[in-house]
User: Fold this.
Amino acid sequence: MDTAPGMFADLPYITLYWLSGFGDPKYEIWESKKASIVSTPESLSFTVYLAFPLEAADECQITIRRFDAGLAFATDWFPDEEFELQAFSSRTDGSVILQSKYLREVFFIHLRPQYE
Assistant:
C-alpha cells in the first residue's frame, strides 16, 4: 500500500486561467470543485467549470503529472497534447502557480490552501 501524500493534496482550491491568442474572448477563468480533485503521488486530476465569461455551463477534465523533467498537464481541450509546466511557489500563503510554456495558448493553474 502506497502511503505517500498525493501531489499538491494540501492545495485543494484550484483556478485555471486560459489566455488565447486565437479565440474571443482572449481569456477565460475556470474553477474546480474540491469534490472533483483526485491526488496521487504522481498526478493530480480535477474537473474545472467555466467561471468567466459566464456562458452555458461547461466543464473540462485536467490532469497534471510528473515526468522525468518536471510537470506537464493534459486537458480535454487538446486531447493529443501535453503542456510542460513551470512551478512558482509563494512563501507567504503556501500557494503554487503552474505556468505552461508559451505556445499558441498559455495556461496558469493557481493551487491554494484556502478559498480567496
